[in-house]
Amino acid sequence: MLPQTLPVCPVRGSVIYPTMVMPIDAGRPISIRAIDEALARERVLLIVSQRDKEVESPKPSDLYEVGTACNILKMRKNPDGSVQVLVQAFARVRVKEWLNLGDHLEARGEVIPDEPGDPITVKALVREVKDRFQALLKEGKYLPPEVAQFVLNLEDPSQLADYIAFHMDFRLEDKQRVLETASVAERLKAVLVLLEGELALIETQRRIQQQVKEEIDRNQREYFLREQMKAIQRELHGEEGAEEVEEFRRKLEALDLPPGVRQEAERELNRFARMHPDSAEASVIRTYLDWIVNLPWNTRTEDNLDLERAKEILERDHYGLEKVKDRVLEFLAVRRLKAERAKRGEIPPDEVNKGPILLFVGPPGVGKTSIAKSIAEALGRRYVRVSLGGVRDESDIRGHRRTYIGAMPGRIIQGLRQAGTKNPVFLLDEVDKLGISYQGDPAAALLEVLDPAQNKEFVDHYLGVP
Predict the structure, then answer these.
(1) I need a surface site. Which of 71, 246, 361, 431 has the fewest CB within 10 A?
(2) How far apart are the C-alpha atoms of 404 and 400, rounded to whole Å?
């Protein structure tokens, strides 16, 4: 029989089950006072787990509703004021009423009796729980051998469920659920589910470890192969050839290249690494890679769309030409409007750069070239002038294919490298002086350059990538 009221000793991070004999360390005043009260009466103490172990002075709402009634067997006071007690648990108790007496808690409760359940079901569950428990031990879950053997020798199904729940690293909530379950069959099922979860967790850990090991092995293998390749290259080509390949590789990794461009550049670099540095083909690939790594793939200047400043620069550099300057200011005003709309999310950012190409027409010396230079200054962009007078070959625009000796990129790509940014102001000067020959019409090649719908994907024959 339980006493009418039981002193309550809150514990943190653990659950005690009936029939267990356990030492309890108590250091908080609320626990020490409860132990003293129990010793002064029938030596019966109610041990209840806290929901949150960080709470230093728990209230009834901080404790679970089900605890364990224990007899105090021994008690020892330590010099630091804490207390050690040896208790033997004998019953599950459901709290019906909490009593807060200020310096400690007490409770009125009732014993939760075990519900045996169907004997055949319980027997099958006991066998399955023991099998899963042994499987867990074989998988590396460590328990002292004497403890493991003691648990496996238990014949009482209720004790088997309780002792496994106590010794396994289950969550506090799961251990408390086992304590609160009156039906022995349901308790065994709960423990079986927890054991299966532990086995699945161990299997997942093993799979992850295997994947990590395979990844490490693959990385080490690749590292050793690369080092061997470097040693072979040093023997064949000397230190300079290997250093040149590594230099190109570092520069490529530092660039934020589009996927297609990176794939092509790495393919050429791998070919270059396998060649003798003095071969003719290596010289062609070296020049190609030099162009790739020195183009301004990621460098862009920010536009200055201050119309007043632009007007001042145009007025400073040019006298008259009012219609021309008004048209230029109108062009810049439209770009500014588009930039503001893009910032508000009304149009895609790509739409800002789409627009007409300005064409300046007039006799020599009226200021066509200088107007373009003033526009570049007003925008804060680099200025590139490409003179097309006398150009007769479309390769001057689109570049030569790399199969030709002495092949080079076209004027557009050369201008980008010269500017050092990907968005300079391009002036295609003397367009009317273009020539036509059996090698093609360069004016036709300019269509791809001047068409706003396709010039963002301009492909130079030499580079072979947009």
Answers:
(1) 361
(2) 7
CA 167, 171, 176, 179 torsion-angle sign: negative
Q: What is the pLDDT of residue 439?
A: 62
What pLDDT score was predicted for residue 48? 92
Specify whether 149 is located in the same domain as 257: no
Strands 6-11 and 44-49: parallel
Give dist(CA 350, CA 236) in Å, integer. 49
Question: Do residue 26 and residue 74 come from a single domain?
Answer: yes
Q: What is the pLDDT of residues 129-153, one digit of tens each?
A: 899 888 888 887 778 888 888 888 8
Q: Which residues of 251-265 are buried (b: 16+ CB within 10 A; e: fewer)?
A: bbeeeebeeebbebb
Strand partners, 429: 387
Residues with Cβ within 8 Å of residue 58, at least 6 apart in sequence: 10, 30, 50, 105
Given a cut of 60, whether residue 239 has pLDDT beyond it is: no
Q: Which two tokens stand for residue 304?
A: 């200055």
Q: Are residues 247 and 187 in the same domain?
A: no
Q: How far apart are the first and last CA of the chain?
A: 88
Statement to judge: residues 17 and 158 lie in one domain: no
- Domain stops at, among 111, 142, 163: 111
Answer whether residue 211 is part of any domain. no
Calpha distance 442→432 (Å, rounded): 11
Which range marks the domain in which residue 275 is found?
Answer: 227-294
pLDDT for the residue 242 = 66
Q: Is 43 left (phi over 0), alpha (psi -120 to 50) or beta?
A: left
Percent helix / strand / coil, the chain, rounded to 5: 50, 15, 35
Average pLDDT over the chain reads 82
CA distance 184 to 172: 19
312 Cβ contact partners less than 8 Å away, ≥ 6 residues apart: none
89 versus 424: the higher-pLDDT residue is: 89
CA dist 196 and 200 (Å) reads 6
- For residues 214-235, average pLDDT: 77
Q: Which long-range contacts (CB under 8 A, 24 or more apart) does 138-146 make?
A: 139/199, 139/202, 140/202, 141/168, 141/198, 141/202, 143/167
Do residues 80 and 97 make contact, with C-beta atoms less than 8 angstroms apart? no
- Does the pTM surpass 0.85? The reply is no
* 75, 50 contact by CB (below 8 A): no
- Statement: residue 237 has pLDDT above 60: no
Find the range with the poorest average confidence among 303-307, 358-362, 431-435: 431-435
Kindly tell me if the per-residue pLDDT of 104 is higher than 80. yes
Do 314 and 288 sit in the same domain of this protein?
no
Last residue of a domain, one of 84, 111, 138: 111
Query: CA-CA distance, 107 to 37, in Å (whole number)?
Result: 13
